[in-house]
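FAQ: What does the model actually see?

It sees only this:
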Amino acid sequence: MAGVLARRLTAQLLAGTAARDPLEVAGRLLAVQAQDPRGARLAIRARTAGASVSAVDRALTEDRSLVISWLNRGTLHLVRSEDYPWLHALTTPPLATGNARRLAQEGVDPAAADRGVAVIERALADEGPLTRDQLCERVARAGVRTEGQALVHVLMLGCLRGLAVRGPMAGARQAYVLVRDWLGPLRPVDRGRALAELARRYLAGHGPADARDLARWAGLPIRDARAGLEAIAGELSQGDDGLVDLAGRAPAAEVPPPRLLGAFEPVLLGWRSREPLVGTHGHLVMSGGMFRPFALVRGRAAATWTLRGGDVALDPFARLRRPDRAALETDAADLLRFLAG
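And it is asked to produce this:
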């Protein structure tokens, strides 16, 4: 598995040549899990050279080249605006049942949910970008429950219906916008072509992998993952291990230097098994559905970390070699620079 891991780290832009900017990272990875805003930005940092958090915010706010919405697996993801329409069309239909169930659990019946979505659509049309707190006030005034997780799932319903998306930054918060206002009218999506593009782009950022990996990552039935891979069969190479990759890819890059990675890091979320990366330390990195920030050393997880008093505090799984610790200290300084910028 060492060879597979090296190729995956290269596909993920964690080894080899860094990306130029946040847009290139999102293009390679296709969708970056983003329910933890800082984690998503740190995923960009780890794959670029010299970028800053302001570059991500600028892409969201000024360029409109990146957006965030509930997509794969029912989780917020950062994607390129040009990829949003077909990813939304492919990955959101399976999420409707779960969203309806959670709304019911939060005490929001279908009629109230529809009323809440209508309020959100009208408010965004009349007032432009609005934050979650601003939308909460308007939805509550309409008599729709917003306590607990109710508002989150009403907002999710509006996004699943393709009406709204999280777009520009409003200070430290991200605002919601109407898709039609922010991205313009969306064209119909051909499902067969979209599945082929999904398979192609998934392998670009995650290969080598198999259909079960793709299905898990995208939150789609295995039959859809297989259909996508079959549609691009002529573009693939297959290894003896049953994994496939895009044909003609460059060899894996050298093991990357020690690096600090953020919460919900994409390299933990792209395949069915995380064992090659975390080994026996999975319980230290993942717990209760949370994915902690960790340090990548010699191509594997070697420590978790937190920000304490404005500094990076490491918690190694074992004693780190002096050069590795020094490299992580240097990377910590860059991480703080990134967040400050």
